[in-house]
Each structure stands twice: as C-alpha cells, then as structure tokens.
Amino acid sequence: MCYSNSLTVSAQQLEKTYGRKLIKSDKNAPVYYQSGFTFPGWPCITQQAEIVNMQWGLIPAWYRGPEPSEIASKTLNARIETLEEKASFKHLVASKRCIIPSSGFFEYQMQESNKKLFFIQPNDQALFHMGGVFDEWTDLVTGKTKKTFSIITTEANTLMAEIHNTARRMPLIFKASQVESYLSGEISLSNFTPVPSELMRAHPVDKRILQRENKNVPEIQARFVDNIGIQGSLF
User: What pTM did the predictor assign?
Assistant: First the structure.
C-alpha cells in the first residue's frame, strides 16, 4: 500500500516536469515524510492548466456523514482490481483521474517479529508519477468545497514484493511519457502492469525517527543499517 509519502523537489521543477503552473507555490515546502492519516494537502496533476492542491484521503461527493475523516482514512488508497466496483471510486475512473507527484514513499518489511522501514525512490529521475482518482466534496456546515484524492495501488513488482512481503502491494506508477495519456483516459486500467523494479531503488531508514513529534526531517530518508535481517538482494 502507500500510506507515507514525500515530495522534496522545488516548485519550479514541478512546473517544468508537468508543464503546469503551481498554485500558491510559496506554501509548498519540502516534504521528507508525511503520513496520509494526517490528511495533508498535496499538489496534484489533473487536466487543468494548474497544479491543484488536494487533500489526501478521498471524500466522495455523495458523502453526508458527520465525520468525513472517517471515510477519508479508508480511502487513502484504492485497489486497482476493485476500482470500478467500489462506490467511492467507480464514478471517478473515467473523468476524475489525477497524478500524485512523489519523491519517494515508505514501506515496512516484516522480518519475523521485527518491522524494517524502507524508503523507495525513483532510480534515474526525480519523481514517481503515482496514479490516482479525485473527487469534490462540499461541507454542508461550512459550504466550502474541497478536492480530495486517493492513490491507486496494484500488485507489487519484484522489488516491492520483497519489501512489502505481507500484502505485496505498491502504488500505481506511470512513466513520464504516460502521464497525459492516463489523465485523458486513454490508458485502460483493466490490464495495467506495475512498473519494473529497475525503475526503483530502496534502502532501509531509521524507523525510530517516526517516534518524534516532528517526523518531517531530511534524516528520515537517510540510509540506516541496524544489522538485523539485512537482505543484500535489495541493494
């Protein structure tokens, strides 16, 4: 799955990569670590001419419950296999696609009773282009409308199957040349295969940093060796 993400490139690099202007770029500071369960704002790519800031954790347009965070905590990810079956997502696949830029994401590997945290990043470029869907929800109390998104996940490639060795999932990642085709709906998700392991690299990081009040620090992405269950095939 993908519940922790990062985005450390500059506003200028985002604009150059996607050919769109970033709204409120002065507020987009580097994100070294961010948990989706805090429902953060994230710059997302749609067919609009601007990069749009959305909230991670999709709230369907039809939602009328008292606690939108409850449904958002369950829609941080959307499984590609059931995307067109779930009520929260099925109406969005054709017309409300988005790309979530990522400098790298975090995932745990289970090693008997120990959980080892890994940082996974692009191998030869600055960004992952994660596929997602979004919706627009209006708060009936405040009258304000917000855009929210979910990251689509798929079966793991070889590298991610070794890291995420329980559920064996990973974000749906597109090559740069596929971004516009995905957004326009030209790419079908019914038989899409995960990107090959060669486009990714991974290393262990210090999970103790997550116990701090401020987890959004550069050292959360630094290689960490604890000599417990080191698996050389990952490096």
Answer: 0.94
Structure tokens at 53: 């800031």
Q: Which two tokens stand for residue 141?
A: 């109390």
Q: Which residues pair with 200 in a beta bridge?
A: 122
197 contact partners, CB below 8 Å, separation of at least 6:
157, 158, 159, 160
At the top level of CATH, the class of 4-234 is: alpha beta
The mean pLDDT value for 98-111 works out to: 96
* Distance of alpha carbon 54 from alpha carbon 42, whole angstroms: 5
Contact yes or no for 145/137 (Cβ under 8 A): yes
Pull the structure tokens for residue 82: 């059931």
pLDDT for 112: 83
d(CA 235, CA 220): 18
The span from the CA of 214 to the CA of 180, in Å, is 36
Say how many C-beta atoms besides its own lie within 10 A of residue 173's C-beta. 26
Longest dimension (CA), the chain: 54
CA dihedral 200, 52, 151, 205 (to 10 degrees): 50
What are the sequence ranges of the domains in the chain? 4-234
The answer to whether the CB of 35 falls within 8 A of the CB of 107 is no
Neighbours of 87 (CB within 10 A): 8
Interval 32-78: pLDDT, tens: 999 999 999 999 999 999 999 999 999 999 999 889 999 999 999 99
Q: Contact 78/93 with Cβ under 8 angstroms?
A: no
